[in-house]
């Protein structure tokens, strides 16, 4: 929006500058003239997973605010980041239109969008328009296998999830002297659920791992009743349940397991959001204890994590930094770091800078953010978290652990006095 | 009528030169307007003209999209060729649905539910097939070329989408003037009377559903190669079916220009309501407003916006094209 | 073939079917009398759920009591909706009737999100975790209570329609609108009350479902579809039909996938009918009924 610079406006402007300079001193002039660098947050803030979308947008914004508070992009004269907001509504066609819109409005880099399908559409568009795109969260491996030059992923790939899961299971089985585990795998019928489930299953077969899956049960996303599925689980008599679930069905399933008195040694998720949501623990109380989840997670002993989490919890009472919001925050840090090193807002320069990223961080479990030729973060990793005493604790890997893991569950779901 | 044609010609010329002046983003909006206008027009053939209500049209888009993809994958066929084969497949499915519906006398809400049932079954089946990406969906590899129906800029997509719309307008216009078209309208208005006059009701309804399904599915190829991601949850869902019928209903069913006008009204409306009303803490407000707007438009324009335009413009333009 | 599992599934499905029946009865009333496809049915049920949840949150009163408040509030909402929107579209061509209700569905769904937030909520109510056992069969207490209360409400609605003046007017207006007008019935009011009762049923059902499933603004749509399938299966305008239909669908969805898998294995096919396709069972039943017996199981007139 260009303001018409006529005489009146010019005089008004000069007067204002003059006045503020007189009152607050010289630096004001610099502030008034420092440019903005626009980046865009594109998340599913409305639609079926708006809870996650909102959380991620908040984290994107908080990161921008924190960077600005610390002086903005210093290599560009302290330019402040401005976060343009876009909503994909969890739909590809909206994702494309919104991405197009923010590019038109001047965004030099996009961050988002949680859903892999939306990510594909946005990545293609960014490739078409030559704009860099940093995926804070999006798990499907395929996206970085299309030869895109402008797309970078901070989040671990699904293959990484499965590999880490097996790594942790190996550790648990070795510690507890278990030679074989009989398990049942369940997952929701959404992109994430299905891919997680399938990758876990395939990795078990490929690596000839001593976990025997007695059954693999899938149910539609948004299901309201899991009694049939849980009856089936009970009939299969597994040692361990490996459920990939979203918050709604996680609660549903736990209650059903309780009511149908399904005996289990443990509930270990190969990686899903349902089990670590605050609402899960809040609503399930003692029944949530001992559930384990293999997820990309914040680093509880990290300095950055502690600061960011404290600020987030203060700003949004009842919420805390989790996998998605953590990576959303980190995604913006990656962009800011690239801008700092690129010293320019030109797309090619930002892409070059992103390629060379080596961002040390202790916000999330895993080492410094570093991208390979495909754009995947080689150091992205998962942690095994467990609910102990109705609090989430990282139990593996040891160097990020807050507590010792507990296996098997000392008390079944219905033995906890509820 | 001549005046109307002149007006349309001017509008067409205007649309043809528009890409030179518009940003990629606005072009994208036009593309969506054309896309939905085309879909709405294809649906219009069955529902507006023949009076058979379908709420499962997303099924045909899905068939078109997945068939085209499959043919590219297995035979290396360009979507330009594949889409016609997909169209035939969709048309055949349409005939199956039509058979169950028309042969057994299912009308009104019964037929609507039949179409929903088939669409949902189709969606669930495709959701479980590995070759179609199962729950994960299909990530389409971008390789920009005309043969691949994939382009870097929005401009080619714009012209193709415009082409689709013009194609559908021609089809509907021809249909309206033909014998088939007259029979279809007769069916819609007074089915029993038409039957007693010797019109083979079953045959003509089957023709209508075939054409409608065939045309709807052609849009599938466009969708696949514009958004680069296929998932039955988005493209074969009830929500998508509802989006398809929205524009022709609001614009005016059973008319040639109704779906186009409807699309020019609704698509920007949705976009604007998202831009202006999507605020933090009130996420979803734009959808509440969108919902209310839908209710209001239907209440005030029950015969579609086009009837209102007709009333206002009829002293100026009298034409056979707008019924 | 695991008979025990099948029995468990069947009972579980049967109990849930009771609540489905209640939802369908609401729709049957609305559709039977006004011939309107209430596309907002599921979303209004979700409002009923949220009302009961809010009462639980503020007063601690269990949804198994507060569902009555849900019913009352949904009655008012339905009554108002009918008088403002639905009444005007009664004579519209069917295609035009779809849109306003779809619009209202969007309004209900998204305003619920703005008011209560998008997160899944699963409040702890008194009976949420208890179950009874009959031998090796587990009976889910909340489900059993929902079932029993749903049946009671259904009986009450049936009595209302048979015994009260308003009820009789509703039935008269359903059968013959012109006739009802001629004898001086305030048809508009009758329709509004009827719609209100329909939505009250669905509001009550929502309240009863709170202990059973997690709430979110978006869970309404599948319920709208299911209630339509049940109404057609049972027979348009037949409340008994809606009752029976609900139970059948509840059982079918529950044991369907398992049964079909067993049949596949029985004929030597190494195929599994996945639970994620359980809706196919209901849709299949719908298609078969529409073809073979369109008036439904208990419907009188054809089509």
Q: What structural category characterises the helix and strand content of chain C?
A: mainly alpha
Strand order of the largest sheet of chain A: 7-6-8-9-10-11-12
Number of strands of chain C: 2
Enumerate how many helices of chain A there are, as a single number: 13
- C-alpha end-to-end distance of chain A: 61 Å
Helix share of residues of chain C?
over 70%
Unreliable stretches covering 5 or more consecutive residues of chain A: 1-31
Number of domains of chain C: 1
User: Could you tell me how far the N terminus lies from the C terminus of chain C, measured between alpha carbons in angstroms?
Assistant: 39 Å
Name the structural class of chain A: alpha/beta
Biggest interface, CB < 8 A = B-C, 45 and 44 residues
What is the alpha-carbon Rg of chain A in Å? 24 Å
Q: How many separate helices of chain C?
A: 11
How would you state the average pLDDT of chain C, rounded?
Answer: 85
Number of strands of chain A: 12
Mind telling me which CATH architecture of the largest domain in chain A this is? 3-Layer(aba) Sandwich
Order of neighbouring strands in the sheet with most strands of chain C = 1-2
Keywords, separated by commas or semicolons:
heterotrimer; A: 418 residues; alpha/beta; Rossmann fold; 2 domains; seven-stranded mixed β-sheet; 13 helices; 12 strands; disordered N terminus; C: 303 residues; mainly alpha; two-stranded antiparallel sheet; 11 helices; 73% helix; globular
